[in-house]
Every structure is written in C-alpha cells, then in structure tokens.
Specification:
Number of domains: 1
Shape: flat
Number of helices: 3
Oligomer: single chain
Strand content: under 5%
Order of helices and strands: HHH
Length: about 90
C-alpha cells in the first residue's frame, strides 16, 4: 500500500508509526473503531494493523480526509466508491 512519498517510507517516520502510534492505538479498547482520515493516516494505521498490534477489522481504512481544499471532489468520489465496503466491514463486527 505504501508509495515512495508515503509517510511510512522515511525510516524515522516509519519508526515513529511502529513505536509511538502503535503504542497509542494498542491502548484503545478492543471494541474501538479506528478511522484514519486521509490516505497517509490510513497507510500509517494499516502498517500498525499489519504488524499485529491492532485488529485490522476495526480499522476503517479508506475514509477520505474531510478537507474542502484542492482534490475535494476526488475525495468525495473515493468515499462513495468505498462507502458500501466500509458499511459491510462495520456490520461484520
């Protein structure tokens, strides 16, 4: 999932995600739904989930950032494309 410009590529940021963010997310209740807003936040949470620190079924990866800045229309389209899959994911919990 990560790309060359991804937050999980640079070693220091990757280390922070795997240590600090992973520790924070691991303290949440097992029933918590984690909703990272935006592509990069999703990549970071996905990295933690793939590392086994949190349950990936409880991570709603793909929720667009709510910004109304440039690219807003693309984020709306991305949300609409993923909406049913995210609803099914939540229904399965």
């Amino acid at each position: 999932m990560a790309t060359a410009g991804s937050v999980v590529r640079p070693p220091k940021l990757r280390e922070w995600v795997l240590e600090v963010l992973a520790d924070e997310l691991a303290t949440l209740s097992p029933e918590t739904i984690i909703v990272p807003l935006g592509v990069e936040a999703g990549r970071a949470v996905d990295l933690v989930a793939n590392g086994g620190r949190i349950d990936p079924r409880r991570c709603l990866i793909g929720m667009p950032h709510p910004s109304t800045g440039p690219g807003h229309a693309d984020r709306v389209l991305a949300y609409n494309a993923r909406r049913s899959a995210m609803a099914e994911q939540l229904a399965d919990l």
